[in-house]
Amino acid sequence: MVQAKKWIMTKHFDGFPKQSDFELKEEKLPEPTDGQVLLEAVFLSVDPYMRPFSKFAMKEGDVMIGTQVAKVIQSKNEAFPVGSHVVAYCGWRSHTVCDEKGLIPIIAAWPKDISLSLALGTVGMPGLTAVYGLEEILELKQGETLLVNAAAGAVGSVVGQIAKIKGCKVVGSAGSDAKVAYLKELGFDVAFNYKTVDSLEEALKTASPEGYDCFFENVGGPSSTVALQQMKDFGRIAVCGNISTYNDTAPQTGPYPQMVILMKQLKMEGFMQNRWPHKNEETLKRLMAWVKEGKVKCREHVTKGFENMPAAFMGMLQGENIGKAIIAV
Ligand SMILES: NC(=O)c1ccc[n+]([C@@H]2O[C@H](COP(=O)([O-])OP(=O)(O)OC[C@H]3O[C@@H](n4cnc5c(N)ncnc54)[C@H](OP(=O)(O)O)[C@@H]3O)[C@@H](O)[C@H]2O)c1
User: Fold this and answer.
1) C or N: which end of the chain has fewer Cβ atoms within 10 Å?
2) What spacing in Å lies between the alpha carbon of 175 and ligand 1's midpoint?
3) Ranges for the Enoyl reductase (ER) domain (predicted)?
4) What percent of the chain is helix, strand and coil (3-state, nearest 5)?
5) By alpha-carbon position, which residue is closest to atom 6 of ligand 1?
6) What is the residue with the minimal CA distance to atom 29 of ligand 1?
7) Coil, strand or helix: which one is 242?
8) How many A from CA of 1 to the centre of ligand 1?
9) Whose CA is nearest to atom 2 of ligand 1?
10) Closest residue CA from atom 5 of ligand 1
């Protein structure tokens, strides 16, 4: 019998999450029965979606939702032998007994010199998000100019690098000078700190006086309205995230974007990365190939210790991370 730990959400977050909204609990897990496995978390992901999803996908007292890379430590399922690794959507748990539903084996021939944690980042959900936003929604073409915000994060950093592979000009905004330096290292043509520029409008105009063909939107809120003004006519916008509003306790009000969408004849589409599951296998292979060739570089913001999950989650929402925020158990 295994003694497991889990983080529960004691009460719905009121604005920005607080340490007291979480509680660490222990439980004894039963032995796996036929078809089941016992998983031990190795890396856990902290992602922005957990904040809005907590409102409608969780009730008070539930285990925090989320994905992890886990090792199979007991198995009564031949498809998942002891010692193999999986990506599992089983929440903030140190150990889990479950059947195979929702378990994704780590892709075949995962290179030994590449950390399995990348299965939660560049070669996982955030990487898929970057590819699908660029290819399925924006249909980004060589020579175009792309704007991406939250650009030094898990999704944004991959977005910018793939856009460079596709022969585009890339402008990225991020919330610290260290992040801006990182974006320049990654090959972004222009990067700026949106917290210290005098005017976002001027920064966007200076970065690309001719405007933007495509905008990969991770942030939302008032900065989005400013960015829309800088789109070229017939520009395309992929609405991937809205992180600047996730902790709001009251809805934000205008200025509303309809007039600029109308006058510039913009095309704006929201998307969730899970729309193209049939493409995941091929896309993950492509992401892994780019990583191995050094064309897509990966950085992780690693917090050690399962007990530090709430701190890492709150830190990510405050912008502490460069690259993918993960927990190493
Ligand atoms: N549609 C989908 O299927 C999908 C999938 C994955 C992620 N997403 C979305 O994509 C976005 C990025 O996710 P990620 O996993 O890559 O996270 P991330 O960028 O690694 O981390 C979140 C970052 O958001 C920025 N941020 C936080 N509050 C902000 C604010 N008020 N204004 C501007 N920026 C703020 C911070 O960077 P700065 O220091 O630069 O502010 C922080 O580091 C999120 O909106 C997320 O919800 C969508």
Assistant:
1) N
2) 11
3) 15-327
4) 35, 25, 40
5) 126
6) 244
7) coil
8) 39
9) 272
10) 129
**Structure confidence at residue 109 (pLDDT):** 83
Strands (E), 197-256: 212-217, 231-239
What is the number of the ligand 1 atom nearest to the C-alpha of 132?
A: 3
pTM across the whole model: 0.98
1 pLDDT tier (thresholds 50, 70, 90): confident
| Protein residues whose CB sits closer than 6 Å to any atom of ligand 1 | 47-49, 126, 129, 150, 152-156, 174-176, 179, 218-219, 240-244, 271-273, 316-317, 319, 321, 325
Extract the tokens encoding 182.
């990182």
What does the pLDDT look like over 6-28, one tens digit per residue?
Answer: 999 999 999 999 999 999 999 99
CA distance 252 to 197: 23
Q: How many A from CA of 278 to the centre of ligand 1? A: 25
Instruction: Report strand pairing: 68-75 vs 85-88.
Output: antiparallel
- Please name the residue that has the structure tokens 């378990």: 103
DSSP 20-79: GGEEEEEEEEPPP-TT-EEEEEEEEE--TTHHHHHHHH--TTPBPP--EEEEEEEES-TT
As a whole-number percent, the residues of the chain with pLDDT over 90 amount to 97
Fold that domain 125-274 belongs to in CATH: Rossmann fold (3.40.50)
**265 vs 262: CA distance, rounded Å:** 5
Domain boundaries, the chain: 2-121+299-328, 125-274
DSSP conformational letter for 323: B
Separation of alpha carbons 109 and 172, rounded Å: 33
Single out the residue of 91, 90, 93, 87 nearest to residue 123, CA to CA: 87
How remote is the CA of residue 104 from the centroid of ligand 1, in Å? 24
Closest residue by CA, ligand 1 atom 8? 241
Residue-wise pLDDT tens digits, 179-196: 999 999 999 999 999 999
DSSP 100: S
- Which residue minimizes the CA distance to atom 21 of ligand 1? 153
Task: Report which residue type is found at 296.
Answer: V
